[in-house]
């Protein structure tokens, strides 16, 4: 079962990376399209984006479902890091982005960091009933953490219109002022695009981690209902509330991920989203399942060290993108 889960995970990550890369490619072609009125060009771009989006959805829905039900966290999280390798390779092949030493270094650091977080942050999970899961959701510590993460997402959302307005102002006024120059780049404008893409990635990673927590809870309810012969759990309204909230989070994280892909390279958005996803996922596990006291000091040290490696790895990829 574990072997099947690993194979599915690798294929799923490769498919997901291909889907993300194709979506990014469609956005690039749309920006570079010299004849926006051409039906053939628009049709080609739409087909490319829809193909990428479909691949991403298939990899997420079917791949994640099999992985969650067959793999423990100690294997699941580092396995996700293989997506970074596929992402870097596909960005180089399809998007013609340079695969430099910084790209390789950043990918390796993020992968090692993800492995450390998963290995030292993984704790055995007992089988829980619907009542147990609902009680965990109602814990004041988890509600405070959930509220805090939502406030962070709201603050980021509030800041995005200001960045967009500044972008439009620069585009409108600087083009007029510097129209006599044949070539003029907008360093501030490019930085604003980069910052906006980073913020979209942060929100996507945050929502993705919460979606995974709800997905695990939903799968646990389903498995418990089948194995323990408790079909009444599936008739409980709380079970379907969890599913509805998970669906909203899943759609929202896809929306913000796609916004980030429109303006920022996949070699930045994907690792950043992965970084935030890992960190929030660990916090979700520690706070939701109340496991902080079960970790040794050495475990906590390596978890923070893993987070540090991921941050350095993403920074390396960011510097490479800016260069």
From TrEMBL:
Gene3D superfamilies: 1.10.3730.20. It is found in: Membrane. GO terms for molecular function: magnesium ion transmembrane transporter activity. GO terms for cellular component: membrane. The keyword Transmembrane applies. The chain crosses the membrane at residues 47-68, 74-95, 104-122, 142-163, 184-203, 239-256, 268-289, 301-321. InterPro entries: EmrE-like (IPR037185), Mg_trans_NIPA (IPR008521). It is a multi-pass membrane protein. Its main location: membrane. The keyword Transmembrane helix applies. Keywords: Membrane, Transmembrane, Transmembrane helix. It comes from the Eukaryota. PANTHER family: ADR321CP, PTHR12570. This is DUF803-domain-containing protein. It comes from Ascoidea rubescens DSM 1968.
